[in-house]
Write a structure and sequence with these properties.
The protein is mainly α. It has helices at about 10-15, 25-35, 40-50, 55-65, 70-80. It binds zinc ion.
């Protein structure tokens, strides 16, 4: 059964239908990526590629379909502490803790 709008992993093992141990991990990477924006995608993929080490870029490129060059770009941005991508600090209306109103006694 095809899952809802989750991109199928493009790595050779998943494509072959092999029941390998990383199958769920590959699916979850692609699921998460489907909810992230462009910049967040390359940062996350760069982190996962780093975790693998040698061959990580190639494997993550296979899993996600992301260009290896894009992964390297994400890694370079992380290396500079995302200096060019400062937090936007957009708060959802009604988000955060409820405000505690100080009751001023009426005189
Ligand atoms: Zn896969």
């Amino acid at each position: 059964m095809a899952s809802l709008d989750v991109p199928i992993c493009q790595c050779p093992r998943c494509q072959a239908g092999e029941e390998h141990p990383d199958r769920i991990w590959h699916q979850q990477i692609n699921l998460l990526l489907s909810r992230l924006d462009e910049a967040q995608r390359r940062w996350y993929v760069a982190i996962e590629a780093d975790r693998i080490g040698h061959g990580g870029d190639q494997l993550l490129s296979q899993i996600t379909g992301m260009d290896a060059q894009t992964i390297r770009r994400g890694r370079a941005e992380l290396a500079t502490s995302l200096a060019e991508h400062p937090p936007t600090r957009v708060r959802q209306p009604g988000g955060g803790r409820p405000r505690i109103e100080k009751k001023t006694p009426k005189s």
